[in-house]
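Input/output pair, single chain:
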Amino acid sequence: MKRQISFGQALATVVGSVIGAGVFFKIGTITAQTGSTSMTLFVWILAGIISIASGLTISEIAASLKINGAIKYLDYTYGRVWGFLFGWAQMIVYFPAQIGALSSIFGVQFVSLFGIKARYSNLIAILLVLFLLGINLIGTKFSSKMQSVITILKIIPIALIIIGGLFNPAKIPAPIIPLTVGTGHSFPTAISQGLLSALFAFEGWIVVTNLANEVKNPEKDLSRAIILGLSAITLIYVLINYTFMTVLPIDQLTNNNNAAFQASMKLFGQFGGKLVTVGILISVYGAVNAFMLTGMRTPYILAQDNLLPFSNKIGKANIHTGVPVVGAFIVDAIAIVMILLGNFTVLTDMLVFVMWTFNTMLSVAVIILRKREPELKRPFKVPWYPIIPIISVIGGIFIVVSTIINQFVLSIIGIGLTLLGLPIYYYMQKKNN
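Output:
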């Protein structure tokens, strides 16, 4: 594949992958779990700190190893089976579920904005997947440039809401200190459940490592894109959620999926509500494109090592565009099936658990490689080692353990779907041998 993705395009992919629907919809869930403005903002900040620590840690691997993506990082550190399982989980659950869920949200918002009958929302979602598939098949360079434009556009309505909130003369008090929880909420439960919900809104940044072999200067640009992208996202999330809480009282925010619309109505009037809906459409559109841009490369990476049936077909990229066409069809076909099935809450909760399990392993891998290969050239070193990697590892363990405690059945399903890849892995190993 050609090295044709600039730092700006990689940064846009990070921001575009993460900022989707979560920034607009998670405020209702988190306020219900915490019951207070101070704890709500705290879990957003804590989620950002854990994500940045994880990004800093994994960026050291991305800059040091001349290999493509998190799958290969796990291969290199733990052995091929772990890299395969991570790629398998991404291919059959993570990317299709993200594309399917976000496309469905797009469909629901689209029919609402234009007054179309609700039963057509799934059709709109599928048409969006097919449209973006066509855009991505044109070529990586074209879709990356489009991602940069969409990322800028999606920030505009968010910026308007934040600025409108900061200069709002009729602010509702939203105390940041002392750190408390609402009546009837326990501190440990509020922080664990709130953090899990907030971290879902940060999900997606690691997928940019799949583009490592296509970034022009991966040793510097990949780590910079991850770190700057996550830092900017954390600031945006904190500011916009603070704005929501100064415009609407917390009892109106609790379990309210239309909080962004209602807050904008108060700030800007009737036009504001429509503006936010357009902003959500642009934001979700960009997120779907970002997941599609990176997701199609997961089957390609696995097939390059002959780890999938028909690897000779899947592991080929178009000689003119550099796009792994078969990989794109695989991921998007599963996404369309998920749109038709419709149970995305279960899938997204499950994929967060699975992905953070592997994220934690990647953070531990930095410590392992520091001990195992001290002479490895490291163009980027995680600062304040080992404090930052330890924060990342502890945060990851907390997420995994909390999910097992609070959503045991989902955890088992996630583990089961991941382990389904083992028979394929050992079959292909036997065949290759």
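Residues 146 and 208 are 16 Å apart (CA to CA). The longest helix spans residues 80-114.
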